[in-house]
């Protein structure tokens, strides 16, 4: 089963697999998602703002909580790390810099 995640402002829509995080889904589908650590949860560059569907998001885990606090953001479920965020229904997020990878 897949779950639709809309990414603003680019208008990209991603079909995220059950149990897959948003960052991994974007890579699988050929998108470049801003990151330094490559999805390890340590750089915090991948953070997103959840605009709609927060109730469809996985709970914030310890590593993600630490990252959100380091960003000086409230741990309220609206700021999330894409590399830790799993979804169980439709979600809309805001993240600048997500774009299709250039094919060589």
From TrEMBL:
<dbReference type="InterPro" id="IPR012675">
    <property type="entry name" value="Beta-grasp_dom_sf"/>
</dbReference>
<keyword id="KW-0560">Oxidoreductase</keyword>
<dbReference type="InterPro" id="IPR036010">
    <property type="entry name" value="2Fe-2S_ferredoxin-like_sf"/>
</dbReference>
<dbReference type="Pfam" id="PF00111">
    <property type="entry name" value="Fer2"/>
</dbReference>
<dbReference type="InterPro" id="IPR001041">
    <property type="entry name" value="2Fe-2S_ferredoxin-type"/>
</dbReference>
<protein>
    <submittedName>
        <fullName>Ferredoxin</fullName>
        <ecNumber>1.14.13.7</ecNumber>
    </submittedName>
</protein>
<dbReference type="GO" id="GO:0051536">
    <property type="term" value="F:iron-sulfur cluster binding"/>
</dbReference>
<feature type="domain" description="2Fe-2S ferredoxin-type">
    <location>
        <begin position="3"/>
        <end position="104"/>
    </location>
</feature>
<dbReference type="GO" id="GO:0018662">
    <property type="term" value="F:phenol 2-monooxygenase activity"/>
</dbReference>
């Amino acid at each position: 089963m897949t779950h639709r995640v809309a990414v603003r402002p680019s208008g990209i829509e991603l079909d995220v697999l059950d149990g897959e995080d948003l960052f991994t889904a974007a890579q699988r589908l050929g998108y470049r998602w801003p990151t330094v650590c490559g999805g390890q949860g340590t750089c915090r560059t991948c953070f997103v703002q959840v605009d709609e569907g927060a109730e469809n998001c996985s709970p914030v885990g310890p590593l993600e909580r630490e990252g959100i606090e380091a960003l000086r953001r409230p741990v309220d479920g609206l700021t999330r790390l894409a590399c830790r965020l799993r979804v169980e229904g439709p979600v809309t997020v805001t993240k600048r810099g997500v774009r299709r990878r250039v094919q060589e």
